[in-house]
Automatic annotation (TrEMBL):
Claim: Transmembrane is one of the keywords in the record: yes
Transmembrane segments: 54-75, 95-115, 127-145, 151-173, 200-223, 229-251
The name this protein goes by in its record: Uncharacterized protein
UniProt keyword annotations, A-Z: Membrane, Transmembrane, Transmembrane helix
Amino acid sequence: MTQTKKSLFKASFEESLNLQDDGFLQFQKKDVYNKLVNYFKNGKPSFGIRIQSFILTILFPVGLNFMVYVCSRSLHDAHPKELAHPVSQHPILTVEVYLICLLIWLLVVFVGKFVRRAYLLPYRYHFHACTFLIWLVVEFNLLAIDLSLPALSFWGIVAIFGLMFILACRMFAGRVRVLKNLMYGTDFSPNVGHKMASKIAVYGMGILGLGVIIRILLSVFSIKLSDTMTLLGLFLTWMILSLALIAMIIYMEFPFFLQAYYKWTYPEEYREWEGKSLEEWYGKKYLKKHKDLYQTDKVEEKGHV
């Protein structure tokens, strides 16, 4: 029997509560949300979290990503004879790319400042950390392309990203199906397209990976064995890091921020469900600009009486 299609973003409040049964979401709440919420009182970040955020921003989003760019620049500035294996003729990770990514990340942080409800601040803080990781992996992928392009060719790189994209879509479709099962209590079975995409992703990545490994090993005739193993290690690190980030976003971060979306959609319902006061839930600063919430709360209290 064909199930009625339901969107993940159109659940009722009661249906959204079923997300609590997701194991990855429970882990995120315990390991991330419950720890971050202690740094925000009445809608304001503590002095400690402000200092910590500033230091971590300098060290990681700005500093670490800049070091990846410096690494790319040093490879292209070095003499070809000094390199264990050749790199692409033209650098892909340039200073312009770094600055554009930095500006995009800072813009995301700036836009996040408009999210001021106290109960959403831990989500906002964690979201900025996730965008930093995405930026880091993007730069690492660009660096990996620089290193792999001479050995794999342009179409080899395209094939890798194409199959990774198919695999990511398959993982996302499966995750959506699981979350729908949780929220609506119905079985959304995968269709033929999902099954085909799954087979293409699994077998395609296997064949592609085997082909890349064989090609790298064949280069042992022109490159020293240790250098070949280094290139192979870089390729495997590239694949593992990229797929790990995709899996983390799909399986852990997506349901975490999906719950934040429903808290935004049903703020009063979640406030009552969690037993929070107006100041605990929204924060004093937010309530000063939305005094109508006090009146709504009084009306609801009279209704309960």
